[in-house]
Design a protein that fits this description.
Number of strands: 3
Shape: globular
Oligomer: single chain
Low-confidence stretches: none
Largest sheet: 3 strands, antiparallel
């Protein structure tokens, strides 16, 4: 498991939650794997209580299955949950980019462009973890520009199902379209073209469906035995 650095004044629960989520998204805690409260607590230098609280929080969004007196299990990928997370993101992010077309300043556009420039750099060298981090920063920035940062934070709970598939796609398929989408979205915001920004965001968030069969072939043991 990859241990993150604890942030200043971060509670044990929040630190455990952030660390466990990151490891689930990046498959260091793989779908179907068992996890122990004691082992997680020892690795993170925490007591069992904040780890238990973090696991309970993750169980609420069905990414972890808690079994009394047994080790917890990271849930297999359920495309129904992935689609539900994508549905929520689609509703919120399409509305957000429309607001961005009204509210973005020149400095905001420069910030988004710099992010896309870095994405292209890491795409050329192909560092999927760096691409994922920049992708997250890009989408978070869109909410910040629209002054909807709290909405973004609330969205992160169920979004973990979608993010795990995004991470798998980046690690198994070099999809240049994702970065191209971001560049088009920035241009649409700069030109105040809300219709283009919205349609491009919707197309962007639906790309995971294109990779579904490829991901099942690459990671056959990570999925529930159900069709999309």
């Amino acid at each position: 498991m990859h241990i993150l650095e604890r942030l200043p004044r971060e509670t044990g629960r929040d630190y455990a939650l952030r660390t466990i989520k990151e490891n689930i998204i990046h498959l260091d805690l793989a779908p179907g794997s068992q996890i122990s409260e004691n082992e997680l607590a020892a690795e993170m230098g925490l007591s069992r209580t904040p780890v238990r609280e973090a696991l309970i929080e993750l169980s609420k969004v069905k990414i972890v299955e808690i079994q009394p007196q047994k080790k917890s299990t990271v849930s297999l990928i359920d495309y129904a949950m992935v689609d539900e997370a994508r549905f929520m993101r689609n509703l919120l992010e399409c509305a957000v980019v429309e607001l961005d077309c009204e509210m973005a300043t020149a400095a905001d556009i420069d910030r988004l462009r710099e992010n896309v420039r870095l994405q292209n750099f890491y795409l050329d060298s192909y560092y999927p973890d760096s691409l994922m981090a920049l992708d997250n920063q890009f989408h978070a920035a869109l909410f910040e520009i629209a002054q909807k940062s709290q909405v973004y934070m609330l969205m992160q709970g169920i979004s973990i199902h979608f993010d795990r598939v995004r991470s798998m796609a980046l690690n198994s398929v070099k999809n240049t379209k994702i970065v191209e989408d971001h560049a088009i979205i920035v241009k649409a915001i700069e030109s105040r073209d809300a219709a283009l920004a919205r349609s491009m965001m919707e197309k962007h968030l639906n790309r995971y469906k294109i990779d579904a069969s490829a991901l099942r072939k690459t990671y056959p043991d990570f999925f529930m035995n159900t069709e999309d």
